[in-house]
Amino acid sequence: MAMLRGAVAAARRCGPGPGTGKAGAPRRYSAAERRQWVPPAGRDSGIVAYNSRSRSKEPLVLGTEGVATWYSCGPTVYDRAHLGHASSYVRFDIIRRIMTRFFGIEVIMVMGITDIDDKIIKRANEMNISPLALARIYEDDFKQDMAALKVLPPTVYMRVTDNIPHIISFIKTIIACGQAYATSQGNVYFDVKSLGKRYGVLTTICPDTQDEAVDADKRHGKDFALWKAAKPQELSWTSPWGKGRPGWHIECSTISSAVFGKQLDIHTGGIDLAFPHHENEIAQCEVYHQCEQWGNYFLHSGHLHVKGSQEKMSKSLKNYVSIKDFLKKFSSDQFRMFCLRSRYSSAVEFSDESMEDAKHLHQAISSFIRDANAYIKGQLVCDPVREDILWERLANTKVTVKAAFADDFDTSRAVAAIMDLIHHGNRQLKAVTKDAGSPRSSVVYGSIISYIEGFFNALGMSFGERQVALGGDNSAVLSNVMDELVKFRAKVRHYALALPEAAGTVPLEGATAAKGPEQEQKEKRQQLMQERKPLLEACDSLRGDLAAFGIHIKQEMPNVLRLQENQKGGPPVHHISGCFLHDCIQVL
Ligand SMILES: Nc1ncnc2c1ncn2[C@@H]1O[C@H](COP(=O)(O)OP(=O)(O)OP(=O)(O)O)[C@@H](O)[C@H]1O
Ligand SMILES: [Zn+2]
């Protein structure tokens, strides 16, 4: 009785069904036939985003000022996640962070977890465990991978199997609206033709053609399952149509609607989800909510391909690298750098070379921050700095970064602007051999590194000394150990290079100041050089070994060393470029 009441209520909410289309060859809507996207009411966020619904860039208008409701299609949890998944979730994580940190938008994100489907059932049978046990294992695994990649968790994760009653009720409403039908075999299908031209808003695919083989109990090839009758021994739930489980698309429609109702600002997923998944989600929700436009902005991430392949990285194609294996070789920051270098919507090619490029870029930034820090601390002596140029560059960079992010989250342009700033900062940070006592420009360098660190920090990365603070006790200890090691090397090298006439400035045990004739002096020098050669070789070899771990020691000029140590009484001039936490941890 309750079910009937629900159906009657739903029928009242439903308007008359649109007419069915005519039969013919498969085709897409023409521009004139296509349903137009309507800009939503609300507040302009200041961002322009490419919207798959309108196939163009649109001002991102949010229903509630400063708040974005966002549904993200989550993983199907039946195996380890790979770099294709990583690229999609990291790229959207970057967008989320840009919205929050650069535009002050609070993001409320819901992610659905598909924890029951054909692939899960098949794999569970192979492993002789229950589908839900398998799904829990890989759900945890996915969450660990996301944490390792520093992807912020959604506001809530929602599992399909925790939402079966909502899903059944959603399907009942669609049936009551006359846009879905149950079959004698216990399946329920969405009647795509009944939507007429209202179907196909994302992909412009016309439903009025019979272009594929029709399953026995479907009316039309494009009809899709809302509920699937259980096969014998299969995990199932009781429903008005018999025992079964939900279809794929209905999960996301239901979960999103359960949290946000019909107000959904942003919907995201990989480009492969646009059809049929998102197309079908839209059809279901627009019937359920009886609205003209469910999901105002659809953002799709481009695929990650293996180099030289047209195919996306995928479990079924067995051409994948798992996130765990990848993180044995590269850091999550290096992967984020790889992602930042292209726009989220473009396809991206993965290879060792592209990762090496990202790694070098990361090292260059680290290196600049280290150098600028050393300069501020007075450990790097430079010619006078043209501060006016640097202040201007910094101001321009801030403007360019904001404009790039506002233009469909153009991370590659923003990173290019940062690299340009670093280039100009580096040009003036050239070590000189003599300290002419010129005024130092610590404040401008402090401002630049503070902006750059803040920029990357906002995007989920960390550089330089701040990383040590974030990394906990071990990394702080390790950083100090590195400092001591580099200081020790500098002292040994300094001693090895000290010439007899300078022996008085660096006393050598057992050595006396050379005062004899010139020949005696020369011989003494040669002998000392010979004796100390192994020390210099050891210093060089340590420098080379550390470079292999991404820790670069800049070669100091001996007379600058002497000047600093002996005239000023300060610490030896040294700094490490490119020594960053992750690499240090890998050393351990
Ligand atoms: N190679 C890839 N590049 C970019 N995004 C991807 C790639 N593979 C999967 N995704 C995205 O990851 C998200 C989760 O995908 P899902 O769990 O459905 O995996 P899948 O597409 O079935 O993976 P596979 O094809 O490897 O089985 C989706 O948004 C999907 O578009
Ligand atoms: Zn989905």
Gyration radius, in Å:
32 Å
**Amount of helix:** 40-55%
Query: Which distinct ligands sit in these coordinates?
Result: adenosine-5'-triphosphate, zinc ion
User: Whole-Å distance between the termini?
Assistant: 67 Å
> Which strand-content bin applies to the residues?
5-15%
Assembly type of the shown chains? single chain
Major beta sheet, strand line-up? 5-4-3-10-11
Instruction: State the total count of DSSP E strands.
Output: 15
Low-confidence stretches: 1-13, 15-26, 467-473, 502-514, 557-588
User: What is the count of helical runs?
Assistant: 18
Task: Characterise this structure.
The protein is an alpha/beta fold and 588 residues long. The protein is 47% helix and 13% strand. It is built from 18 helices and 15 strands. A five-stranded parallel beta sheet has the order 5-4-3-10-11, sandwiched between helices. Strands 6-7-8-9 form a four-stranded antiparallel beta sheet. Strands 1-2 form a two-stranded antiparallel ribbon. Helix 2 links the parallel strand 3 and strand 4. The longest helix is centred in the C-terminal third of the chain and has 31 residues. The chain is elongated. The termini are far apart. The N terminus and C terminus are likely disordered.
Give descriptors for this structure.
588 residues, alpha/beta, 5-stranded parallel sheet, disordered N terminus, binds adenosine-5'-triphosphate, binds zinc ion
Short description:
The chain has 588 residues and is an alpha/beta fold. It is built from 18 helices and 15 strands.
